[in-house]
Amino acid sequence: MNQKMKKWLPASVATIMAMSIIAGCGNGTPAPVPAADSGKTAAAKPFEGKKLTVVTANHPWGEAIKPLLPEFEAQTGMKVEVQSFFEDQLTQKLTVQFTSGSATPDVFMYRPLQEGKLFYKNGWVQALDEYVKKDASYDFEDFTKSSIGSTTVDGKLAGIPIITEQEILYYRKDLLQKANIAVPKTLDELTAAVKKLHDPKSEMYGFVARGQRSPLVTQVSSFLYSEGGDFTKDDKATLNTPEAIKAFTTYSTLLKDYAPPGVLNMSWPQALGIFAQGKVAFITDANSLYKNTTDPEKSVIADKVGYALFPGGQAGSKPYNITSWGLAMNSKTANKDASWEFVKWATGKDVVLKTQKLGNPGPRASVWDKPDGVSGFPAEMVQVIKDSSKGGVDHDRPVVIGVGEARDVVGSIVLQGMTGGDIKAAADKANQELQVIIDKEKGK
Questions:
Q1: Taking the CB of residue 12, how many other CB atoms lie within 10 A of it?
Q2: C-alpha distance from residue 139 to each of 136, 158, 188, 273 (Å)
Q3: Taking the domains of the chain in order of start, what are their residue ranges?
Q4: Hey, what CATH topology would domain 166-320+397-442 get?
Q5: Torsion-angle region of 154 (φ positive above 0: left; ψ -120 to 50: alpha; else: beta)
Q6: From which residue to which does the signal peptide run (predicted)?
Q7: What is the pLDDT of residues 314-347, one digit of tens each?
Q8: Which end of the chain is more exposed for a tag (fewer CB within 10 A), N or C?
Q9: ∠286-363-371 over CA atoms, to 5°?
Q10: What predicted TM-score, i.e. pTM, was given to this entire model?
């Protein structure tokens, strides 16, 4: 392992490597291109005989792309082998293979804001800046600015967005109508509405959101941005600014005073689950999870769910507007041009339209303007997504290599507030801890 990799490799990964639980997949020398009958045939299938290994997460996008692969294979002459893993297994597999210098997988799904900086700093991903300029028909400018911001590391394009998401407000339309409450447009209005609808004696709670230490960080981020704060600024931690304190206080107070019992142990499945059971008036979370509230098999309020733009704070409505999943190319692949051909196809307008029709929110602005492109989403949500995409922030957690450690630091502030502790003192302590992480990564 070279020294650069050692510098950024987490201790947990070193343990994984020692266990040698996953071996890199071999990638034999591609078969020679068969002699073409004519120049036309050769031009039509320039990658005849190539084989690509593509690794995906067990994610709806991965399932949506698989039935489309025969189309790609027929067009290019390539064969594509797809391997799928659960999120944590995916990160583990990729880290072990890349650390060993494996040339496979050729292309892989990844979470830009969770692993992107680590993968790029270690030299494991191929920068794609030159590739996106090769074919004007690819129309790179069609990708939303914030989606590209999420996949950019140190000014270089480390991957191509495939799934985007924004934090939105979910609410019970019937409860607001009955109480004659307008849909909240500000965080103050949200707090007032939550108080009015909170009725724990009747098992009706005003608000719920993620309460677990690490998972809550992505969702408190929109509160932070909307109050005018951020996790960092110019390599300086900013967790204890007045704006940050206000945001952390609002989020923790809503959960402490108006959430169902057990919220400290809730990530998104539990929070959305109890909302779908009809026991909560409001929840803020990712728009990409909406089917958990509208599926009649999972939700008793499937026809009563409303969607709204994230409520504004003193800086207005500034929800995160991110790429949650992207496609990247292995820097060691022996098939770079073929790998880009796959990425270009999978993230082109036609395929994005096909996957988005199945409910996978994509990054191309033009697809959101097509009737077919929005057919997989509730009409009310489509407008919310479009409005959210106009602004927002391209990250939903601290943008550092040690993301897990940083999330625990930020989450500790909210936990203090939820348990009645001193948020200001917790924020001061967390700010120092986050600065240590930043300085360590900068070599200070």
A1: 11
A2: 6, 18, 41, 39
A3: 3-158+322-389, 166-320+397-442
A4: D-Maltodextrin-Binding Protein; domain 2 (3.40.190)
A5: left
A6: 1-25
A7: 999 999 999 999 999 999 999 999 999 999 999 9
A8: C
A9: 95
A10: 0.88
